[in-house]
Design a protein that fits this description.
- There is one protein chain.
- The chain has 4 helices and 4 strands.
- It is an alpha+beta fold.
- The chain has a single domain (3-97), classed as Glutaredoxin (3-Layer(aba) Sandwich).
- It has a 4-stranded mixed beta sheet with strand order 2-1-3-4, with helices on both faces.
- It is globular, with a radius of gyration of 12 Å.
Length: 99
């Protein structure tokens, strides 16, 4: 994903959860079904984008991703929350619904 199209995504959508991940990362793989369930529960209230840090090194560097998975929640282009490491669905829902 180009930096400009990524910026467009996070600025034009109300809530965007970005999952910075790597294909070789076990906790990243564990987050995949959690993010799918999150999308089922929240529907159109949120967009979820997955960024492979090995393929999108420029975005990973720009957002200073040092470990994966790192989740960043954007609201209208502004970072509202950020956390590294896998987390359970109920915690993730709580964070997002408190925005």
């Amino acid at each position: 994903m180009e930096k400009e199209s990524f910026r467009h995504l996070i600025e034009t959508s109300d809530l965007v959860l970005v999952d910075f991940y790597a294909t070789w990362c076990g906790p990243c793989k564990a987050m995949h079904p959690i993010l799918e369930e999150l999308k089922r529960k929240l529907g159109d209230r949120i967009r979820i984008a997955k960024i492979d840090v090995d393929k999108q090194q420029h975005l990973a560097a720009y957002y200073q991703i040092q470990s994966v998975p790192t989740l960043i929640l954007f609201k209208k282009g502004t970072i509202k929350w950020r956390q590294s490491g896998a987390m359970p669905l109920h915690e993730l829902l709580h964070r997002i619904e408190s925005m």
